[in-house]
Amino acid sequence: xxxxxxxxxxxxxxxxxxxxxxxxxxxxxxxxxxxxxxxxxxxxxxxxxxxxxxxxxxxxxxxxxxxxxxxxxxxxxxxxxx
Length: 82
Known about the structure:
Shape: elongated
Oligomer: single chain
Structural class: mainly alpha
Order of helices and strands: HHHEEH
Strand content: 5-15%
Distance between the termini: 57 Å
CATH topology: Arc Repressor Mutant, subunit A
Mean pLDDT: 82
Low-confidence stretches: none
CATH architecture: Orthogonal Bundle
Strand order of the largest sheet: 1-2
């Protein structure tokens, strides 16, 4: 079963909307668990992890999702805190 161009565009738009909603939830509270984020968006946990790792380029550090690349200011803060 192949998707028509219209179906593919609709799917991509829905995906973009889900990612935008996810970013908004993430901005409001970064400490939410993957499970609670999935429940809020009504999607499965694997999809939440895919959005975090592939679309938002984040990874897990000490049970908290953070950007992979630190800015120079963030690096300096880390160096001086140790």
